[in-house]
Amino acid sequence: MAAYIVRRLLLVIPTLLAIITLNFFIVQATPGGPVDQAVAKMLGMGEGALERITGSHSDSNGGLAEAGGADDTRGARGLDPEVIAEIERQFGFDRPLHERYFTMLWDYIRFDFGDSLFRADSVIGLIVDRLPVSISLGLWSTLIIYLVSIPLGIRKAMKHHSHFDIWTSWVIVIGNAIPGFLFAILLIIVFAGGSYLDWFPLRGLVSDNFAELTWYEKVIDYFWHLALPILAMVIGGFATLTMLTKNSFLDEINKQYVMTARAKGAMERRILYRHVFRNAMLIIIAGFPATFISMFFTGSLLIEVIFSLEGLGLLGFESTLQRDYPVMFGTLYIFGLLGLLIGIVSDLAYTWVDPRIDFESR
Known about the structure:
Elements: H1 2-28, H2 34-42, H3 50-54, E1 57-58, E2 64-65, H4 70-76, H5 81-91, H6 97-109, H7 123-158, H8 163-177, H9 180-191, H10 215-234, H11 238-253, H12 256-263, H13 268-286, H14 288-296, H15 301-306, H16 312-322, H17 325-353
Antiparallel strand pairs: 1-2
């Protein structure tokens, strides 16, 4: 198993290289680079004015250019070419594309992600500041979904076609049909001072006087702020995992070895948790990395916006709109690395659930 883990860890390096390389050159070809963002701000115009300022197709520096050149267009709008050159120098766009690419790779090998182009902070500093929100939303949402869905799915498999199975299926289907952001707005209207009750706070992860609270008051305050966002995130998260668990257990329950164990007089609980559970959980464990990553990062974007929570999802979205390349590539690098490492942990969980699985022999 140790040799397999070493091989997987070594595979992380070319995989990350491919992810960063592909996204680097795609982003460079995208219209409206950071230079044009800065120019638009200097001209007192919004982001929507970029096309009017710089035309419609990208130059080699990731900015925009017309047939006569982006600098000509900018000059026609009243900006001195020397000002444009200084902006490009500040952002590092005065260097060739390949030089910027290899410099970025060398910095990322040393985990040096640089500073944000539009925020007065380093990329690492921004990620660390936003990490508590994303960890809180992703961790508790995933934990609640798994703690509810797996026992519910097992129970539904054991009570297949019963009244319990039918009405719980209706409940999770209705919950899955409700968009999380729409449910979040409903929660705000009803419970966060929208039109009816004012029981829960609407902004932030903790209260302003958090430092003055006792330890148990801090715990209460923390979960008090998280109650509505987490509820909005998990409302539609039970359906897939519950039905996956149920179908996986049903498939195992109907196999020959279960019928043989029952014929030998084995107790139903022993059959379920000693034999069926081990085999049925494999497919659920296989989907855990993707579920965790989606809940941890991408799944919380709209919830962060609605509840005014500054997490990694919102940071990545804002950085993409601003073409803040260091933040974009830094977060992509960290997310990609985390996803690959979680995949390895998932393989280890396979062997823990079923020791018969031997990845090293494959």
